[in-house]
Amino acid sequence: MNMPFTFCRRRRGLSMTELMVSLAIFALLLTGSLSVFIMGLKIWHGSSMDIESMNEASMGLEQMLYGSTTNDHGLRQASTNNTLVTTNSAGWSICFCGSNSFGYSASARVITNQSGQVLCTNVSRSSMTVISNNQACVYIQVTQSHGSSIRSNDLTTTIFFRN
Question: How do residues 132-149 score in pLDDT, each as one tens digit?
């Protein structure tokens, strides 16, 4: 007896098992891709915070050494005879070349020049140490924080005063 042709034909489409397996594989791939993306964002955010804090510390130290404007003198112009460094628990200050000065305020977390212009912000620690008559050491630590991420960079330089 011959069966009709329509009964021998296999039905086309996906079974429920095939559909569930493909959805599970897709979910695993999506979860893996999403976790790699989130990890990449965290690394990028941390790196950009590092760069920001390093730029802030570098620019602040550079303006202290060379002057913040063309009319200002930087610490490279300071001489041994007329330089006065004072330090206390609230910060430090250095006066040189008559009316030029720089100061660090621990409470405000900034380094400013004699006219009050802010040269460096987010300064968590800074020190000005006189090594000898003609040299001093400047240390700056700038800290950036965003949410639970905290990044900091330290810069130190030694200044030799002119005779």
Answer: 878 899 999 999 988 888
